[in-house]
Write a structure and sequence with these properties.
It is built from 13 helices and 22 strands. By secondary structure, the chain is of the alpha+beta class.
Length: 461
């Protein structure tokens, strides 16, 4: 990697802010970045992976230092997620409980969303939103791989989402778009678009996002604010904005690693020491800031009232979008499902059909918002037959299965990822789950001894 060259304006700023500590900060920015991954506790026997689990990330459940590959079966089957170790702490700090309604407002590529889904343990709801359409597609793929069925993936503007979900969530995570100073060591290109003007632009955008986020949080609900920058304008100063302008109170989190928030940079707020700054010299990971808040006041009542008045109309429109799901069609789906072991939380009675897609919705009324995935897609009805979805295969990976074709070696695994057929000696027929190293990652269909490939074209290598 090329040597990191910091902008003079950046160095001058932090020399002034950090004084004697500035030299150790700049030196730490030249060190090698750390890499880590999390295991997926939703998957069957999830700790049976080929990676070294001897170096845990302090204070983060199922997280370890080490590097993984996106070509490995552990990644393809959703058993692991590669994530910067510092970036693991915001989801941990939010302290989500099973059964809660949670929003990940700026969710792509999905690291924090998958961690929140792990914490929810198949109970409650996660809405994972991303305003960028291209990044939202990547978010959907990563969440699908994780194998949870209780997530709504949206591609929405924050203000539209706020109209849809007034005072709805128990907890919200806002990992806000920022100037990216914390990524300088890991991604030298991040330096090229940095300027003090950009820092201030990001600060204004963060306030706009939070102005809408507060409308979606229940009174007494939790908000976790985080960035991957060191800038006080985007960190402690935003904390002051949340407390002084939006009715929040800073609270302690279960994250005790890293450094405290700096009072002088945040108007000496009560509780600013509860915030956490991940400096490179802390030797945890890349740059990160986090702070947790409780909403102590009711704000924006007019917006909330107006949104509730619209909700009845939305329900009627949503119902029109659903098609009649006939008894014969339901039997087709149930016939396929009967071949597999289903997780305890599976409830077919809630299944619906739209444009021949059969799914179990995480949210019933999704009118007037852009939805990429709602809950658990079971598959597609096609002229008297039912074809299961890739998401269903990953979801079924939560429990051990019997109707499985186990690929015998790395070459077969790579052939399947490429979209090729494989052969089997198993006495099976019809749709089967495909596994490698006892990790389910797709569907196939057996005819004779040939397994037709159902790994999605968009995921093929």
């Amino acid at each position: 990697m090329d040597k990191l060259v910091l902008p003079k304006e950046f160095k001058d700023k932090y020399q002034k802010l950090l004084a004697k500590k500035a030299d150790s900060f700049f030196t730490a920015l030249e060190a090698e970045p750390k890499k880590a991954f999390r295991l997926n506790p939703l998957k069957a026997d999830y700790q049976e992976v080929s990676y070294d689990l001897s170096k845990p990330v302090d204070g983060v459940e199922d997280a370890y230092y080490g590097e993984i590959s996106g070509r490995d079966i552990e990644w393809v089957s959703g058993y692991v997620y590669s994530q910067d170790p510092s970036a693991m702490y915001p989801a941990e700090a939010l302290g989500v409980e099973p059964g809660q309604k949670v929003l990940d407002l700026c969710a792509a590529p999905g690291g924090k969303s998958t961690a929140l889904l792990s914490a929810l343990k198949n109970e409650g709801l996660l809405v994972a939103n991303e305003i960028s359409a291209s990044r939202a597609k990547n978010l959907r793929e990563n969440i699908e791989r994780w194998g949870a069925g209780n997530c709504l993936v949206t591609n929405e503007d924050t203000s539209h989402l706020a109209q849809k979900f007034p005072r709805f969530f128990d907890a919200i995570l806002v990992d806000a778009p920022c100037s990216g100073e914390g990524m300088f060591r890991k991604n030298h290109d991040a330096v090229t678009y940095w300027s003090q003007e950009y820092v201030l632009e990001c600060s204004n955008r963060q306030k706009e996002i939070l102005n809408e986020a507060v409308k979606m949080l229940k009174p007494g609900g939790s908000l976790l604010y985080s960035t991957c920058t060191y800038a006080p304008e985007e960190d402690e100063e935003i904390c002051a904005y949340l407390v002084n302008e939006l009715g929040f109170k800073l609270v302690k989190t279960k994250v005790s690693v890293a450094s405290q928030g700096i009072p002088a940079w945040g108007e000496n707020l009560d509780g600013i020491e509860y915030a956490r700054r991940f400096w490179p010299e802390d030797e945890i990971g890349e740059g990160q800031f986090l702070a947790k808040f409780i909403l102590s006041e009711i704000n924006n009542e007019e917006v909330v009232t107006n949104s509730k008045q619209k909700s009845k109309k939305r329900v009627k429109k949503a119902n029109k979008r659903l098609e009649v799901f006939t008894k014969a069609e339901k039997e087709l789906v149930q016939e396929l499902l009967a071949d597999f072991n289903l997780p305890n939380n599976f409830d077919f009675s809630k299944a619906v059909k739209s444009k021949d897609h059969v799914y179990i919705p995480a949210v019933e009324d999704v009118s007037q918002i852009k939805v990429l995935n709602n809950g658990l897609e079971l598959g597609v009805l096609k002229k008297g037959r039912f074809e299961p979805s890739q998401q269903l295969a990953q979801y079924l990976g939560q429990v051990r299965q019997e109707k499985v074709v186990e690929l015998q070696n790395q070459a077969e695994f790579e052939k399947y990822l490429h979209g090729e057929t494989v052969r089997t000696e198993e006495k099976l027929k019809g749709f089967v789950l495909i596994s490698y190293q006892d990790k389910i990652f797709s569907f196939g269909k057996v005819t004779g001894q040939v397994v037709k490939n159902f790994y999605p074209k968009g995921l093929r290598v």
